[in-house]
Description:
Mean pLDDT: 94
Number of strands: 7
Bound molecules: cytidine-5'-monophosphate, magnesium ion
Strand order of the largest sheet: 4-1-7-5-6
Structural class: alpha+beta
Largest sheet: 5 strands, mixed
Amino acid sequence: MSALPFRIGFGEDAHRLEAGRPLVLGGVPVPHAELGAVAHSDGDAVLHAVADALLSGLALGDIGQYFPDTAAEWAGMDSRVIVARALELVAARGYVPGNVAVVVTLDRPKLGPLRAEIARSVAGLLNLPESEVGVSFKTSEGLAPAHVQTRVTALLVRAPGTGEG
Length: 165
Ligand code: C5P
Ligand code: MG
């Protein structure tokens, strides 16, 4: 058990983009995306970074250890399952997410119209109010047009009734 009542986690992910594939971010399908993620799972780079942020906050490793991308059983899997598993591992250590901040770097399409839906979706998976999920978008300024990059910080809070004692 950690001596700290708060733990900070950081996660990152990237996927190559190709025509003819779906693009899903934070559990939200992006309509009219010309390019989608090349991935073993559903390629949801937001949820992969969210899960890694949760795990890293308690030094629990990363999602590849729990969901190897060579395992046939995880092919095309819904990344919400990965977040649910990370949340369980965090809860087993006596912590819950406090707030999270998500940054998505993607040139096209514009994601601003999906900001609230992505925040709501991620918040729902983490049992948080939407106000505790910050979602920012950046372009790569044309440096990586066929690429999606995500970064997520997560504050973990020791759940009431647990901890050092
Ligand atoms: O990266 P840059 O500073 O050029 O982004 C400018 C604006 O475009 C930001 O306000 C951001 O929210 C928005 N944006 C977006 N969808 C993207 C990338 C950036 O809505 N895919
Ligand atoms: Mg990924």
